[in-house]
Design a protein that fits this description.
This protein is of the alpha+beta class and 246 residues long. The chain has one domain: Phosphatase 2c, domain 1. It has 7 helices and 11 strands. Helix 1 packs antiparallel against helix 2 and helix 6 packs antiparallel against helix 7. The relative contact order is 0.21.
């Protein structure tokens, strides 16, 4: 596994409330681990939420002894959510905080993914495909046929998320399993990137760069050139050919 993780304040925000983590080496029983968290709830609350969620998840996954990918992620997410919610209820300056989360690991050629909120995971090969589903008001309205993605309502409300870690005492994550193929790259990102670049622009950049470092840096630069209206966070992963199915 080869990866590159970058986070940037962007062009407008006064602080960076995102947090990224990438390990190509084993974390406990898990062979690797990648995540992006996008905090909300003011400077102190949002930054605390994303960092706490990410660092505590790594601890819990390292301590888990089962070696079961989805159950391990599910237990860790529920524990982190409960702890973060208790802190939000206990400290006035953290009240209302929360964070999105997209979490991934690769084992025996299978990609395991969890997500809450609107941070995303894409699979990029000859084409690009969004694996995760945004937990946002606009996506719920699109699914119900009440608005379209090219409508003014969509553009005005696409930052309104309907699920986040730490906002309530329990949270439901979505989980995905995907078979990887030679040439696939995995992109985890916050909406600071996906709101600035189209899926096709992301694909073209990743496909034309030889290394993860080059691809991640070029994505970040492109997001800032397009306006950088939010913090931009990227984890780009290139599974080794020996680890994926052909």
């Amino acid at each position: 596994m080869k990866s590159c993780a970058l986070t940037d304040i962007g062009q407008i925000r006064k602080s960076n409330q995102d947090f990224v983590y990438a390990s190509d080496l084993a974390i406990g029983k898990m062979p690797n681990l990648y995540l992006v968290a996008d905090g909300m709830g003011g400077h102190q609350g949002g930054g605390f939420a994303s960092r706490y969620a990410a660092e505590r998840l790594v601890e819990l996954i390292r301590e888990d002894k089962t070696g079961q990918e989805i159950p391990t992620m599910r237990r860790a997410i529920q524990e982190v959510n409960h702890e973060l919610y208790q802190k939000a209820c206990s400290f006035d300056d953290l009240r209302g905080m929360g964070t999105t989360l997209v979490l991934a690991m690769v084992s025996d050629g299978i990609l395991y993914v969890a997500n809450i909120g609107d941070s995303r995971l894409y699979l990029i090969g000859e084409d690009i495909r969004q694996v995760t589903k945004d937990h946002s008001w606009v996506e719920e309205m699109v699914a119900q046929g009440k608005i379209t993605r090219d409508s003014e309502q969509f553009q005005m409300n696409k930052n309104v998320i309907t699920r986040a870690v730490g906002v309530r005492d329990s949270v439901t994550a979505d989980f995905f399993e995907e078979e990887l193929h030679a040439g696939d790259r995995i992109l985890l990102c916050s909406d600071g990137l996906s709101n600035m670049l189209t899926a096709e622009e992301i694909r073209d950049i990743v496909a034309s760069r030889e290394t993860c470092q080059e691809g991640a840096l070029t994505l970040l630069q492109a997001g800032n050139r397009k306006g950088g209206r939010d913090n931009i966070s990227i984890v780009l992963v290139d599974p080794e050919v020996g680890d994926v199915a052909c």
